[in-house]
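ok trying again, last paste got cut off:
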Amino acid sequence: MNLSHVLPAIVLVAAMAPAAVATDRYYRDSFAISPNGKFRIDAKSPDNAGARPRPFASNFTYTLTDTTTKKVVWERKQPMSREKGSSYVRSTEGSPMGVFVNDDGVVAAHLSWETLLILDAADGSKRGEADVLKAFPKSEQDKYVSHSTAGPHWSQESDWFFVTLPAKGKGAAALYFVIRPYWNHRLVIDASTGKHVDLGVHHDVASPDALAEAKEDTRRLLTASIEEETRRAVATLNAAPESLKDDKDYKVYWELTAALHTVGFLKLTQCEARLTLIDKYLGEHASDTGSRVRAKVREALRSMGKTPLAGCGVQLYPLVSHQGVFMTQDTAHPFNAQVPVDARQAGASQIASGMTMKELTDLIGCPDAELYDGARCYDYDIDGPEAYTLRVYVDRGEASVQSVKKITPFAFLHDPARMREH
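nice, full thing came through this time. structure:
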């Protein structure tokens, strides 16, 4: 699973510049290896050479290598253009934010213009280029895409992969590329032409059982997509928690959170034991990265109707004055995070405005997520016969509770403010 397109390709700089000035964007070198290990695709730019890569890197070279022979199959340059009478050279195609390759050597690249480029296995020629972000309905873009001077943010927890439909009858085998964002509206692109496939109302099904009324081609395609999503998610989870031992490897973090999202979305109950193992491991090996992963583990369990171990997704700390100028976290004295499940259920009904953060956490522990919903707030996912989320809004100094709101069912299943915060 290659999620280099959601790694730090975008780096935010200090917010002292005027709002109209775009933030520098960094398009890092990336690579991918086909599932069978035969092919490797690299995308490299001279702008990324040296200790300090340049923002807005371009002039990338794509190189497909046969790993069995160590020979280069083809190279392809990112198209560049120089205006007449000018020394300035600009790219006429987006820079790659992530690359993918299938078992036959067909390559896809997620470009900075939020398009998907498809390159032929034989010579790297362009098969097609498909809009990605613009292909989603505007209503979904408004709800789920966050915009900033560094560009749109929407690919967290997304899954990107090739899927092949075997030949049937007189029809030949067909290759597609699937993009499933965190709100689960799949895009399926014909990898021969770059054209989108019309899935009708079935684009977000979580089980082949929901495809009884779909056309045969749609049913076959989405069934194959769900099977591939399942295979990838299970393989990624089976590599954890061993893969989490280096908590600075953000590629592992992004891949695992995407897999955890898939597990919850598809309700892969066969993963319950592995989820509990990862939850326990992360509870014993605290880190900022581990906490974010643990939050997704707990969401996956709850999506399947299971109750996680006692604990939290976000550790809270008292705020203390630093040299009388600003407030910092007192990490030496964390708030209580281990409230038993039954005590958490009982304590949730007692949360009221005016409570201090210590009183809040003494009753129900630390939250499952932190987010912004018109104001700073924390979400507590409350297990029980009536599963729900308690959203606790806090004051600007995060010293006390301002108000609370009950959200049913769990907010992470449907609330855009919560779903975006990963």
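cool. Helices lie at 138-144, 216-238, 250-266, 272-284, 288-303, 341-348, 357-364, 416-419. Residues 6-21 have pLDDT under 50 and may be disordered.
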